[in-house]
Amino acid sequence: MPVIDGASVGVDASNYIDLGKTNFAPRLGLAWRPLGIPRFVVRAAYGIYYNVMGEYDGAVDLRDLGLNPPFRASQTFPGSNNGVPNLSWTDAWAGTGTSSTSSPPNLYAVDKNFRLGYTQQWNDTMEWEPARNTALRASYVGSKATHFVQAVNINDPLPSSQPVQPRRPYQPWGNIHYYQSDRNSLLNQIQLGATRR
User: Which of 52, 62, 150, 72 has the alpha carbon at shortest distance from 109?
Assistant: First the structure.
């Protein structure tokens, strides 16, 4: 079987998702005793962490693109009422009964402007030992997520009591799972703690 590359069918770099070539992910940390005494210390850290491709967020898997037709098809063969099998090894895809390709088929798509998600995390902590074997801690913790993924069904019709499939905007397809990288989040918190040994 010959190997066909994208250029031979008119596909150039503009047809592919650009996930970035400079995904810089520094991590910095420091510990400092501003009063010069061992009982009081300040710690701080910052880092950038990129998501891995594939499954993340619990529901999104970019490998789903391989599930699009014609790469995957499922067929249903009803059972026989008289005990005679509907399928045989010589005619496994048709059989003597009726078969039906699952309909409507679902599709999977990825936004052309999809970006690799990343999280920035930072913290600033002060620790103090006011008495022997007793420690107090106050921390500011923050994180910011950018370009996180969400899947949207762009072929979902508006609510109605009528049958679903005839009202879908894109026919003859079922659900069209469209992956976008437009979710963001921001977290800021204060953490207080005391330890007595």
Answer: 62
